[in-house]
Amino acid sequence: MKSIVSKIQKYPHKPDTNPLNWGLVKPNLLLLANAFVDYCDKNKLPVKFTSIIRNGIKGVSVSKTHIEGRAFDCSIIGWDKDDIENCVEYFNMNYSKIGAIPFGGSTGLACVYEDGITKGSGAHLHFQVRMSL
Ligand SMILES: [Zn+2]
Q1: Which 3 state secondary structure label does DSSP give 75?
Q2: C-alpha 2 – ligand 1 centre gap (Å)
């Protein structure tokens, strides 16, 4: 796991996103992040992590998955519509078994495209894993 952490830490991060947080996330999230950077390298897509662990701030809705070290976000700057759709499809096809189950849902979702309008954040890809034993 340590080698995965140092590999992922070498990719670009937004200034307020601390790469050291990769050492604190759930093991399955590291597996997902590792698969994601490999996917991006293979498809020549830029990687920029914009969020890993976030603290809950009063009055600001923050997904519990980030607070618990079960999610990360990636910028989609430099990606086109097809890149985004293919990525979401690929990760939900291959990683739904570890993906977090949305409230009221039954199937795991490993990757979600947030358009930035619904939640008021910038458009990004949100990756998430479920609680594991
Ligand atoms: Zn997120």
Answers
A1: strand
A2: 23
The tens digit of pLDDT for each residue in 27-43 reads 999 999 999 999 999 99
Helix or strand holding residue 122 (H, E): none
**How many other C-beta atoms are found inside a 10 Å radius of the C-beta of residue 2?**
8
Quote the distance between the C-alpha of residue 42 and its chain's center: 18
How far apart CA 23 and CA 8 sit, in angstroms, is 10
How many domains, in total, are found in the chain?
1
Which 3 state secondary structure label does DSSP give 52?
coil
Residue 116, domain member (yes or no): yes
**pTM (2 decimals)?**
0.91
Closest CA to 11 of 40, 59, 47, 64: 47
CA of 126 to the centre of ligand 1 (A): 4
Residue 51 lies in a domain: yes
In a domain, 133, yes or no: no
Segments forming the whole domain that contains residue 102: 2-128
Report CA(51)–ligand 1 centroid distance (Å). 7
In a domain, 92, yes or no: yes
Distance, CA 124 to ligand 1 centroid (Å)? 8
